[in-house]
Amino acid sequence: MSATPARRRTLAALAALPLLTLAACGYGSQAQDDNTAELAAGAQKIDGLDSVRIGYFGNLTHATALIGRQQGTFQKELGATKAQYALFNAGPSEIEALNSGSIDIGWIGPSPAINGYTRSGGKSLRIIGGSASGGVKLVVNPKKVRSLKDVRGKKIATPQLGNTQDVAFLNWAAEQGYKIDPQSGKGDVTVVRSDNKVTPDAFRAGSIDGAWVPEPTAAKLVAEGGRVLLDEATLWPGHRFVITNIVVRQGFLKQHPKAVEAVLRASAETNTWINAHPEKAKAAANKQLQADSGKVLPANVLDPAWESLRITDDPLAATLSTEAQHAVTAGLLDKPDLKGIYDLTLLNKVLRAKGESPVDDAGLGVG
To answer: Quick one: signal sequence residues (predicted)?
Structure first.
C-alpha cells in the first residue's frame, strides 16, 4: 500500500496510538482465567496449549464474546486449555496487543482489522469469522443539533482515532462536504476521541454535542436526553454491515488450528443460542458486562441497544471493501490491498458440521 507523506504521518500516528493506550486498556493485567466453567472430567489440552488469550470490548456489539465467556462455552470447547480474556475500549489498542502476542484471538471492528492487516503488509492477522452487524448510531443533543445539517460546527465524539466508528463518522462527514483533519479531528466538525466509558459523562456535561458510537453507549446517551439522529444501518444496503469480526494472529492460526477451530465452534454455538433465545441472551450479555465493569445496564439502555443488533457467523465480507473505501475517503489510507485478509476455512468446516451453509469471503480469502 502506498501513501502520500501526509497520510504516512497519519498512519504513523495510528500505529503509535495503541502504545499510548495499553495501560488504559490494561490487557496484560486484565487477562484472566475463565473460572466460570468447570473443566469436564478427563478434558485434554488442545494443541498442547496451556491457554488461549481472547480479546473483546465491553460493548453489546461484542455480544458473542460476552455471552460465550459468561456461559463458559469457550472454556467447554477448549477442554483443559484455559480461556483467558482481555478487555479493550477500541480496536487500535487490541490490534497492538495482537501484534505483540499478548492475545491470540480477538473480537474487533473492521477498520482496525483493515489497518492492522495493511500496515503489516498482510502478515499480521486473518479475519476468521463474523459476529455482529448494526448497533451503531449518531446520538446528539436535540437542543443543539436538530438536523443533519446542524452537525457542522459541533463537537462529535468517537471511541478512538482510527477505530471503526471514527472511520465511519469521518467518511460520513466527508460525504456531507465537511473538511476535517483526520489526525487532529479539527475542522468543520470537531471530532473528540473519547473512551466509551466516559462519553456519557462528557455528553451530560455538555463538552460534546453528540457521538457516533456503538451500543450500549448510544442507548446510554439517549437515556441522558440524547436523540438518535442517524442509525448507521440505514446507510447500508439491506441495513447489513459488519461491525464485529473475529481475527487471529497468523502465526497462531498456523501453529494451533485445532484451538482456533474450538473457539470458532464455541462462537457458532453461542450465536445459535443467542438467536434462539434473545431475551435470555440479552440478560447473559448484561451479566458479563456487570462482571467486567461492575455495573449492570438498566432496561431503558439494554432493551433499545439490543434491538438494533444482528448476531451472525457471516463476516459480511462484501461490506469490508466498502469500509476500507471509507478509510480512504476519511483520509486515513490510500486504497489498500485486502486480498488474503480472510481465511474462512475453519469457520466453514464448523458450519458444515452444524448442517449450515458456508459463508463467502467476497474474493478476499487466502489464495
So the answer is: 1-31
pLDDT tens sequence across 22-50: 323 333 335 445 544 555 566 899 989 99
Class in CATH terms, 5-133+242-353: alpha beta
Long-range contacts of 358-361 (CB under 8 A, 24+ apart): 359/130, 359/313, 359/314, 359/315, 359/317, 360/317, 360/318, 361/315, 361/317
SS3 51: strand
Cell of 224: 441522558
Angle, CA of 107, 157 and 148, to the nearest 5°: 110
Per-residue pLDDT tens over the stretch 143-158: 999 999 999 999 999 9
Cell of 136: 451503531
Cα R_g (the chain), whole angstroms: 19
- Alpha-carbon span 356 to 312, nearest angstrom: 12
Residues of each domain in the chain carrying CATH 3.40.190.10: 5-133+242-353, 136-239
Q: Among candidates 257, 236, 214, 285, which has minimal Cα distance to 128?
A: 257
pTM of the model: 0.85
User: Which one of 3.40.50.1820, 1.10.340.30, 3.40.190.10, 3.40.50.150 gives the CATH number of domain 136-239?
Assistant: 3.40.190.10
